[in-house]
Amino acid sequence: MEEQSKKQDQIIKKLIVEAGTESPSPDFKLKLMEAIREKAEQKVVYKPLITRKTWIGIAAVFIGIIVISVLFPTTGLLSGLGLEPSKFETGISLPKPEFSKTFIYGVLFLSLFLFQVPFLKKYVEAKYQID
Predict the structure, then answer these.
(1) Number of folded domains that form the chain
(2) pTM confidence score
(3) Residue 8 located in a structural domain
């Protein structure tokens, strides 16, 4: 196995000597630096995977489902579709969730904070001209 490795080394050395080394052109460094500068100046354009229209559509569907579930009683809506709640009864009763005032206030302030983030981001970008 070592003999094969030695033979390969000798062949590779012989090929390198025959091919010689190439020296770059005199302005190689200048061209390389220009290419690097051009690459650095190019800006990456941010394109979200899910567009704004799609998010609006998802939100509209979600809000529509909530509104329909509030406006129409579940028995009337389900019986209109031919789905009776009695057919799906499993005998499992879920407890009614009870939230403390502290929890409700926390969720309220968190949602307000998350609602303000896009506006604050735009304000800071406009003030400090951040791209």
Answers:
(1) 2
(2) 0.30
(3) no
* 64-85: burial string, b at 16+ Cβ within 10 Å, e else: eeeeeeeeeeeeeebeeeeeee
Residues 83 and 106 in one domain: no
Contact between 130 and 124 under an 8 Å Cβ cutoff? The reply is: yes
* Rounded to 5°, angle at Cα 50 from 131 and 57: 120
SS3 63: helix
Structural domain for 128, as ranges: 98-131
- What does each of the 131 residues of the chain score in pLDDT, given as a tens digit? 677 788 888 888 888 887 777 777 888 888 889 988 888 877 777 788 888 999 999 999 989 887 777 676 555 555 555 555 555 556 667 677 788 999 999 999 999 988 888 888 888 888 887 65
Pair (55, 79) in one structural domain:
yes
